[in-house]
Design a protein that fits this description.
The protein has a single domain, classed as Muramoyl-pentapeptide Carboxypeptidase, domain 2 (2-Layer Sandwich), CATH 3.30.1380. 33% of the residues are buried. It has 171 residues and is of the alpha+beta class. It is globular and about 45 Å long. The model has no long low-confidence stretch (mean pLDDT 93). It has five helices and eight strands.
């Protein structure tokens, strides 16, 4: 899949903006779906599903199947990697420190294991499992926030955000 640039998300995913700065309930109903990834997933210790844009559902599932295979279909490995610790997907909001909608507002982004992969962490836990988790995502055209270096002298000025995975390109 050739995922859109972030600047093209309105055209690709639709406009999630409703009235008075709120999310559009019509857009949510028409575009968001619940999926159960191949591996166990928990939010605040309770089993959960992912609420994502329908255009990304197959990609999330294919990626989760690859991660599950790489973990030997072992729940303990998934737990060690932190992939069972779900931080959320769809969330209508702007990007931190900005006025542009977050990729979460389009349902094309998800966070995993936030406690060990915090914003700005240059040595995130998920980096230890790059080949098993991140590489398959990137191979499918996804963008991993852990690759952002926060260096204003480079093309990517974003602070590392290793918990963050998205189906929208930066450039």
């Amino acid at each position: 899949m050739n995922w859109p640039l972030q600047s093209q998300c309105d055209d690709f995913y639709g406009n999630p903006r409703g009235k008075n700065g709120l999310a559009s309930r019509q857009w949510e109903a028409a575009n968001l779906v619940l999926i159960s990834p191949a591996f166990p997933l928990f939010f605040l210790g309770k089993p959960c599903k992912m609420r994502v844009h329908k255009k990304t559902a197959d990609a999330w599932m294919a990626w989760s199947e690859e991660v599950w295979k790489n973990a030997g279909q072992n729940k303990n490995v998934i737990r060690e990697w932190g992939m069972d610790n779900f931080g959320g997907a769809y969330n209508y909001r702007v990007m931190r420190g900005g006025r542009v909608l977050s990729m979460h507002a389009y349902g094309c982004a998800a966070d995993f294991d936030a406690p060990r992969n915090g914003m700005g962490d240059k040595t995130p836990h998920l980096a230890k499992y790059y080949d098993q988790i991140v590489a398959p995502f990137v191979k499918m055209g996804g963008v991993w926030g852990g690759s952002w270096d926060g260096d204003r002298d480079t093309a990517d000025e974003r602070m590392p955000d290793a918990m963050h995975f998205q189906w929208a390109r930066l450039r």
